[in-house]
Amino acid sequence: MSGAAPPRPLTDLGARARDLLRLAPGAAVVLTAVVTSSFLMFVLTDPAQRWLLALAVLAAAVGTDGVLRSAHPRTFALGMDSTPQLILPALYALVMPLFIEQNARGLWSPALALVAGLGFGLIVIAEVRSVREFERGASEARLVTDVAAYLTAFALFSLLYMRDPGLPAAALMAALIGGLLSFEVLRNSSLGLLDMLTFALAGALVLGQLRWALDYVPLEGHLAAVALLLAFFFLSGVLASRLRGQLTREVLLQYGGLTAGGVLLVILARAADLG
């Protein structure tokens, strides 16, 4: 990557977004309706029924696999593994209802559940459109899945601090979250599943150690989650660039600069007691 691409006109971005949605498989629409319904039932039930989370995760994983295979039967018949593309939809379906339950009250809960359901549908469509890396719309689809991976990571890291399972468990879970979501960011590289697992484990170890170290820093809640997210962003972004042969000094400086800027904002927010 020799430099940043010139910004696209808003009309072009809108056209790309419409193109991404235009070829959405009908099965993806049905799956989105099922998962959105489970989100709504979870946030509207008092007390919340945890089995609805299991239903949402199962529907997300099995349903996404079915949508992928129906949209690209030849690709998966030739031996492509769909596992890396199922992790993000499943984790998103698990964490979003919990995150909404933890942070929203009143009419905000069903409204945000509907938005989260639409977001799930966009993720599934993006997964379908990014199966073949060089197809039209694949780069836009990859952007959607990467952003969704970071959003999901933030929600999971936030819940880690809000639920506070204890330091050893929190460090282990932070490592697990980073490792699993790394599959989404790293996929479509030239590496196979086992090689991606090796690189994901390396990033997971760093995140687990950082979560342990952050216990001795005066950060908590969303600000601490942002700190973990910044580490995940830097590690996964640099690894993905390296695996795709795009890691240059300029790219490394871009990731480092964005991460450093984020850290500075966290420090300023903590100093202003905004955490």
Protein model, in words:
The N terminus is likely disordered. It is globular, with a radius of gyration of 19 Å. It contains eleven helices and no strands. It has 275 residues and is mostly helical.
In short:
By secondary structure, this protein is an all-alpha fold. The chain has helices at residues 10-22, 26-44, 51-71, 73-77, 83-103, 108-129, 138-163, 167-186, 193-214, 221-243, 249-271.
Q: Which labels suit this protein?
A:
single chain; 275 residues; mainly alpha; globular; disordered N terminus
Helix content: over 70%
Biggest sheet architecture:
none
Q: State the distance separating the first and last CA atoms.
A: 36 Å
- Helix segment tally: 11
Secondary structure tally: strands: 0
Mean pLDDT: 82
Please report which band the strand proportion falls in: under 5%, 5-15%, 15-25%, 25-35%, 35-45% or over 45%.
Answer: under 5%
Give the structural class. Answer: mainly alpha
**Low-confidence spans: pLDDT under 50, at least 5 residues?**
1-11
Q: What is the approximate shape?
A: globular
The arrangement of helices and strands along the chain is HHHHHHHHHHH
Radius of gyration over alpha carbons?
19 Å
